[in-house]
């Protein structure tokens, strides 16, 4: 029947939920998995044993953890994304010039995914830095809003319907009409801002990367509010990141991994 989603394979869905739970709990036993997912302990154990036999789960003492086999899949997906090849040299230059942290990000199933992180000489703690592969809500991040600016409003509303607009801080946009108005401003200016919307005391500036007419990701530079203030935040950084985007898109137009 048209218009209907294909049937989900419940066993596959359960396996993925178990893996996600192992990551959330930083390792767990069958009983903890069963309690968290409301399934039988014997069922949880069977899934864990199967995942272990396939090499996706390891066991240390009495606790199961995600195995490194997933790293192969993740690195393959990351390295084959066009943003990696065309963005890193210019992002490195931006980080060297500002001393802050730069991110290369993309959208995946309505979430903002970190593909690359380059740290400047002004190191920050992990709360600001995050990690490669991290998945976040798009509306609270400069990079996420930059990517959304390349999407239609219908697509943005689909993402909102799926994931919502949860608040990270008191500054996070949590109203869909307000977000759409913000995205329209990003479309006009070509740059997105995160003014303590994800983390208190943190600001960032981001811009979308377009390849062959399609928004494929974003570049962001961020740091503490006290260092990213006044015209440096509103004018200097947007100008710098605009030049970086120009370089990246020119590099992509000459040799695109998607062509």
From TrEMBL:
Q: Which InterPro entries match?
A: ArsR-like_HTH, GAF-like_dom_sf, HTH_MetabolicPath_Reg, Tscrpt_reg_IclR_C, Tscrpt_reg_IclR_N, WH-like_DNA-bd_sf, WH_DNA-bd_sf
Question: Which GO MF term does the entry hold, naming one?
Answer: DNA binding
Which parts of the sequence belong to the IclR-ED domain? 69-254
Q: Which UniProt keywords apply?
A: DNA-binding, Transcription, Transcription regulation
Known SUPFAM superfamilies for this protein? GAF domain-like, Winged helix' DNA-binding domain
UniProt-listed SMART domains: HTH_ICLR
Question: What residues form the membrane-spanning segments?
Answer: none
What GO terms in the biological process aspect are recorded for it? regulation of DNA-templated transcription
Ranges where the HTH iclR-type domain occurs: 9-68
| Keyword Transcription regulation listed | yes
Protein's UniProt keywords contain Disulfide bond: no
Q: What's the name of the protein? A: IclR family transcriptional regulator
The protein's organism comes out as Halobellus litoreus
